Amino acid sequence: MYCTKCGKQNRDGDNYCRQCGAPLFKVRPNAQATGGNAGWRAPDINRGPASVPQEDPNVLYETGERYWDGTNGVEQNYEKAVEYYVRAADLGHVDAIYSLGYCYAKGIGINRDIQKAKMLLAYAIDHGSLMAAAKMGDFYYWGEIFPEDKVRGYLYLKYAADNGHAHSMAIVGRDYLTGFGSYEGWGPAKDETLGRQYLEKAAEMGDNYALFEIGHNYCGGFNGFPDDPVKGARYQREAAEGGHAYAQMTYAILCWNGEGVPKNPSEYARWMKASAENGNEEAVVRWAWTRYWGVVESARCKSEREFQECRNILEQALADGEYFMTENKEAMDELHAEEARLGRRIKITDFYGGAAGSGGQSSGGCYIATAIYGSYDCPQVWTLRRYRDHDLASTRRGRAFIKIYYKISPTLVKYFGGSRLFRAFFRKKLDRMVAGLNEKGYEDTPYSDVSM
């Protein structure tokens, strides 16, 4: 018997590796169910009517799958799915035995029973089910169903990975990349080369988590990956299209920041919404922020009810101390101050109901500053125009910023320029910026724009 942690051969019957002390477990990856029940029968289950041929376990299992998924004209019914899994399992169908173990573990379609779940999953593993090994590993590794046991969970995942299970490859690859397991005493030492091999193989097999991890490492140049935001964004996009919730959020942020992909607020809104609807709690908050503040016009709240629902999500995130809301606390503080002044809660019409700010404009823009200070020709705007023409316009990134600003800011002013909250929020930021520019030598005297 070989240890899956260190590779040392041990004697049959050993419970722990003689080299590294890791626990050993017996599997027979080449064993197959023979078509009989191998002396095992699922207990205490209503097996339902004999409406399909019981002599064909594949038909029974596939029928259970249709009930599980609600496909091929069959209405989704977990209890019916379990009935067919039981009947197929009684005939030795390994996938049915795994599925039944999963149902017992989760309590889906049948009362939860952890001991039966362990027994069924172990039987399926012993008869070659990589899905059962991967799921047993997950349950121990994350402490999701069984008491957390990183050592045991990792061993199951490593076995599944080394026998071709894509998602297990991704988990094991990540553990090799980071080396966290060795620091905590349950997993492998850091090995960036081996970790990358596991991840890339899993990605080739279409595993979304592997695609997400590779994209993350390329975007930041982490764990031996070159810093390549374009390649990183490409991996994140592929994982996002595959339905990975965190990849959807990450790709949305890349679209907003223009990192590895062109800056695209519409794509940001599309993928942040998808991530929120996919159950990503952080994305739920970020999507509420996007809709509440209306930073993407097409994503704005359409009713007072939606507006207040988003507000409640943001308030709860602040109360919970969510780290990703820290940068937005100032805006919420401004909102609270404005409500104190008004003596009432801010309504959607306070955000979206006002007219654009007064004051002239020129082809040079400075739309927000003009709306805030009331005129295109005033000391503060003169200072900002000088900064635009003599600093921002002199660099490629600065010119790109100006171009994007000219596209976005007229819409912001159109919808929010008449809002007192909008003006209060931006006034403090612009005042600080103008003061800093004046200290650096930018004058606040009358100014004529440079032709651009």
Describe the structure.
The chain is mainly alpha-helical and 452 residues long. Among the domains are: 20-128, Tetratricopeptide repeat domain (Serine Threonine Protein Phosphatase 5, Tetratricopeptide repeat, Alpha Horseshoe); 251-352; 367-439, no CATH class. Helices cover 60% and strands 0% of the residues. It is built from 21 helices and no strands. The protein has helices spanning 57-69, 78-90, 94-106, 114-126, 130-142, 150-162, 166-178, 180-184, 192-204, 208-220, 229-241, 245-257, 265-277, 281-293, 304-319, 329-342, 348-352, 367-373, 379-390, 396-416, 420-439. α11 packs across α12 and α14 packs across α15 (304-319). The longest helix has 21 residues, at 396-416. The protein is elongated. Residues 25-45 and 354-364 have low confidence and may be disordered.
Mean pLDDT: 82
- What integer value in Å does the Rg equal? 30 Å
The share of residues in helices is: 55-70%
What can be said about the biggest beta sheet? none
Quote the CATH topology of the domain at 20-128: Serine Threonine Protein Phosphatase 5, Tetratricopeptide repeat
Structural class, from secondary structure content? mainly alpha
CATH class descriptor name of the domain at 20-128? Mainly Alpha
Number of helices: 21
- Write the CATH architecture name of the domain at 20-128: Alpha Horseshoe
- Measured distance between first and last alpha carbons: 75 Å
Strand content: under 5%
